[in-house]
Amino acid sequence: MNAIIQPSDRSPGPPPEPPLALLAELTHRCPLRCPYCSNPVELTRVAAELDTATWARVFREAAALGCLQVHLSGGEPTARRDIAEIVRAASEAGLYTNLITAGVLIDAAMMARLAEAGLDHVQLSVQDTEPGSAERIGGYRNALPKKLACAQLVRDAGLPLTLNAVVHRQNLDRLPEMIALALELGAGRLEVAHVQYYGWALANRDALLPTRAQLEAATAEVTRAREDLKGRLVIDYVVPDYYAKRPKSCMGGWGRRFLAVSPAGRVLPCHAAESLPGFDFPNVREVSLREAWENSEAFNRFRGTGWMKEPCRSCARAEIDWGGCRCQAFALTGDAAATDPACGLSPDHALLDMAVREAAASEGDFTYRVMGAAPQKA
Amino acid sequence: MTAVLTPDSIPRLARGMKLREDTARGQWVVLGPERMFVPDEIALEVLRLLDGTRSVDGIVDELAARYAAPRGEIAADVASLLRELAEKGVVQA
Fold first, then answer.
1. How far apart are the C-alpha atoms of B39 and A324, rounded to whole Å?
2. Range of the domain at B85
3. Which run of H or E residues covers position A77?
4. From the CA of B40, how many Å to the nearest CA of chain A?
5. Residue B21 lies inside a defined structural domain of this protein
6. Mean pLDDT across the stretch A261-284?
7. What is the ipTM of this complex?
8. Which Gene3D superfamilies does UniProt cross-reference here (chain B) (predicted)?
9. CATH label of the domain that carries residue B68
10. What pLDDT score does A13 carry?
């Protein structure tokens, strides 16, 4: 890895632009066990989590650095007993606070505390609109009714709601029902996010990858609904890399717009970056967020375009998609500095078509997320 | 939740939207769920006039007085600006 990187290639230059948003992964604990969980396969235990005061300092540092929003995530952020204090600290730091939750642990009393603490917005996940399927995908009993109850609490508290539907082969056919559910629950926004295949999701890729026919139907449905529901429901749609010709601009470019802090305090350019080998990520217990953002080797390694190889280096889109996703490049090619195979120009692009064919021929069994046990297949 | 704004409508920032100063970048921004809008000078001026009591007509009056510009022109600009902001979910009546 290190042989590929030549720091002398990079001119010192001005400090990087400030980040827009902080993803605060408060904990890896979660009552659900979704087989596409975006947490790393090695989950952090409760004893190693940052305490309330440290998170409060992180929020103040993030705001001073230029962050405008914080996404309080996990794991399940409400699994932390101090979640209301954390919301208050983020809000007092001046950040727009967004709670990303599965909703099953939130009761009326907790919602009241969160709203009072200054929460600005709730993003609630749904695994499916069919109760049995929702229960199976999340690996959690009675998940859907609890989520519907949570949505009502959000509405009663007067907070705006986004419904987040992670979609894949086993629920994508119910996209019209998901859109209807978002309207019924009074959500102002629906996020239809195709699974991103790293970590746990990569281990479950064969069970989750949608077919091309499913994808085309879903894209048409989103296009139609966006037009019909203009002014009523905003629909964000994340298309799956496996059918793409150009890679997504992952995180808007490494170290350009976003930073994440893991439950144990590691500062990351994206929440999945711990899957990359050969990195020494800075920790908020040791350095300031500004130091991590502006000067750490980890953030500078894939920043800008100087690190790129061909075909990215001479590509006209180098500063549009920034080479795609580093985690996906590593997961599929073994080289984190390679062009994301989602790009049609990548020499490894055929890997994606092969995966699609393999998935089409396989059963739908899941490897569930468990703490202390990495998935067996990858 | 409607995209239709009449001269009598009282527009306001939609639920979850916040107008705030972004000191790090020397600008004002509208923050919403996973969204951020940077209003231009005119849009910022209109957004600052959304106080929950002023109607679309009232906003036009205020701007016409401030800029001594033809009222009809301002009314058309404000209407199209608010329509655009409503479609983006930034403003509601």
1. 29
2. 13-92
3. none
4. 18
5. yes
6. 95
7. 0.82
8. Coenzyme PQQ synthesis protein D (PqqD)
9. 1.10.10.1150
10. 65
